Automatic annotation (TrEMBL):
It holds the Pfam family Dockerin_1. GO terms for biological process: polysaccharide catabolic process. This is Ice-binding protein C-terminal domain-containing protein. One of its GO terms (molecular function) is hydrolase activity, hydrolyzing O-glycosyl compounds. Residues 423-447 form the Ice-binding protein C-terminal domain. PROSITE patterns: EF_HAND_1. It comes from marine sediment metagenome.
Length: 449
């Protein structure tokens, strides 16, 4: 369900639009609070993500533009493709629009390069008797769907975490938009799926191949243009699911989403948004009936840089090396500020790295057990002064030397307990630690001499 804060913001936005229309004598066409189908970077709710960028401008899919490097990954597989196969070309096995592999890999902005989820037919106007459905067709009350997988899990990071590309397109300069919408569900285990809370303010049916105002639609895939040289994806932020029952109950891990399910919405009003309001889009459609999926791009993925299946000290060291090298590889820009620096190391340690007790810790947890204690101090003491050292050796920052800077970080976080909400001890305790640590390190230096 939409949060109270967002509801208030939407109410204020729509009130302002209404007031503007009154003051201008009705010259301003009514529009919703959400983003337009194309370039709308300042929208406060769901600014679309450009599929292509380059000298021709964001969202322009013509050469020499290229696929947006902000996407770190793309759907690489699928575990279910269950189209609603009555009333469209999907009744023929292997039909052109029934190829789920088209949803894999990067966006292309080719409106023909998509897989259809199928349309549910209109009971008042059923297809000709000669159209015999596949025995496994879904049925009139069960829309088509596809579940996608990824090489690396999606994580809840800064801003949008994924974007979905359909093949909708804008009809005219006024913003009228042909859309086939879909719900988006996510899961970390392939069994328990949470659905993003959508909002549809389209007032009534638009008819077969009709148009909608995309500024009336939120958190439903397919509301942005991706075809005829334009390429924009609909953003989804995993953080909006933080209060979902599956997350609270430990059945959905927002730090490791491995499945994204797209479910078609037949736009006759029989299917509802999160508030129970009817959803309308172009219905019924034939040929590539229903939602046509082209790609799902990942904006925040789990930073398993060495691809071993774990986010650990080795990955921290790889990020540290990237920082020292002033890398421009956006895989290492974990906080999405456009720069690879120490802030990304902080994000890595606090929100991504795996410990023996969960996800995330603090600088100084060199053995990644979720605690910063005497064991970590002993590790640092052993390697103090070493050059070319990594996290597991006691290097708490991104340089290659274990020195007083690392000791200061250890002092700051000594006593941290990830299982207790990241608590740290009182300053007096830290002072005693500093004295003891300094003495121990001094003894080591005397022994070296």
């Amino acid at each position: 369900m939409m949060t109270g804060k967002k509801r208030v913001a939407v109410h204020r936005w729509t009130t302002l639009l209404a007031l503007t229309a009154v003051l201008s004598g009705g010259a301003v066409a009514w529009a919703g609070p959400y983003s337009q189908a194309g370039n709308d970077p300042t929208n406060p709710f769901d600014p679309p993500i450009a599929g292509f960028v380059g000298p021709n401008g964001d969202g322009d899919a013509t050469a020499p533009n290229y696929v947006n490097p902000e996407f770190l990954g793309w759907a690489s597989g699928f575990v279910d493709y269950l189209p609603a196969s009555l009333g469209n070309d999907l009744i023929n096995p292997g039909a052109d629009w029934a190829q789920p592999s088209r949803a894999l890999g990067p966006v292309t902005a080719d409106q023909m390069d998509a897989v259809s989820l199928g349309e549910l037919y209109d009971p008042a106007a059923p297809p000709p008797p000669s159209w015999v459905p596949d025995p496994d067709w879904i049925g009139i009350d069960d829309p088509g769907e596809i579940t996608l997988t990824f090489d690396l899990p999606i994580r809840n990071g800064v801003g949008a975490d994924l974007a979905v590309f359909e093949n909708g397109f804008t009809n005219d300069v006024g913003g009228s938009f042909f859309a086939e919408l879909a719900y988006v569900d996510v899961s970390s285990d392939g069994v328990n799926f949470a659905r993003f809370a959508g909002d549809s303010q389209t007032p009534g049916p638009v008819g077969s191949f009709g148009s909608i105002d995309p500024t009336n639609v939120y958190n439903l895939a397919g509301k942005h243009s991706n075809g005829y040289t334009q390429s924009w994806g609909t953003p989804f932020d995993l953080g909006e699911l933080a209060d979902h029952a599956l997350v609270v109950g430990g059945l959905l891990d927002l730090t490791a989403v491995q499945f994204v399910r797209i479910v078609d919405i037949p736009g006759n009003g029989a299917f509802a948004d999160d508030d129970g309001d009817p959803i309308y889009d172009a219905w019924a459609t034939l040929g590539s009936g229903g939602f046509d999926l082209q790609a799902v791009g990942v904006l925040n993925e789990v930073p398993d840089f060495d691809g071993d299946g774990f986010v650990n000290a080795d990955d921290i060291d790889l990020l540290s090396a990237a920082i020292r090298a002033a890398s421009t590889d956006l895989r290492y820009d974990l906080n999405n500020d456009g720069v690879v620096d120490g802030d990304d190391l902080t994000t890595m340690v606090e929100t991504c790295v795996e410990t023996t007790v969960g996800i995330g810790t603090a600088p100084g947890d060199f053995n990644l057990d979720g605690l910063i204690d005497g064991t970590d101090l002993a590790i640092m003491k052993t390697h103090f002064g070493d050059l070319g050292a990594g996290w597991a050796d006691g290097n708490a920052n991104f340089d290659e030397l274990i020195d007083g800077t690392d000791l200061a970080l250890l002092k700051t976080y000594f006593g941290f307990d990830a299982t207790a909400g990241g608590t740290v001890p009182e300053p007096a305790t830290l002072g005693l630690l500093a004295v003891g640590a300094a003495a121990a390190i001094a003894r080591r230096h005397r022994r070296r001499k």
